UniProtKB/TrEMBL annotation:
It comes from Nonomuraea turkmeniaca. InterPro entries: Antitoxin_Phd/YefM, YefM-like_sf. It comes from the Bacteria. Coiled coil: none annotated. Antitoxin component of a type II toxin-antitoxin (TA) system. Belongs to the phD/YefM antitoxin family. This is Antitoxin.
Length: 86
């Protein structure tokens, strides 16, 4: 884990993002206090949601299923696709 001041992170933000993309976690400090952690994004959240919904089909209460369906429609309208796999 790498530690940087907010000023350092600001001046080299592209480098910070490159390091996070490579799996590094960067702790950002200001005045000696930790204020943020920048790290790699979790992978495959769409795949996990799809798997959960497939496993749970027919077992969720009707209101929850309706909420999920409405959310999927909103996302699909916005992205014109399906949940991403990665």
């Amino acid at each position: 884990m790498k530690v940087m001041t907010a000023t350092e992170a600001s001046r080299s933000f592209a480098t910070v993002l490159d390091e996070a993309e490579r799996g590094e976690t960067i702790v950002v400090t200001r005045g000696g206090k930790q204020i943020a952690v920048i790290g790699p994004a979790p992978t495959a959240p769409g795949r996990m949601v799809k798997a959960f919904l497939a496993r749970s089909a027919g077992t969720l209460d009707a209101d929850f299923e309706a909420d999920v369906a409405a959310a999927r429609e909103a996302i699909e309208d916005e992205t014109r696709g399906t949940w991403p796999d990665a």
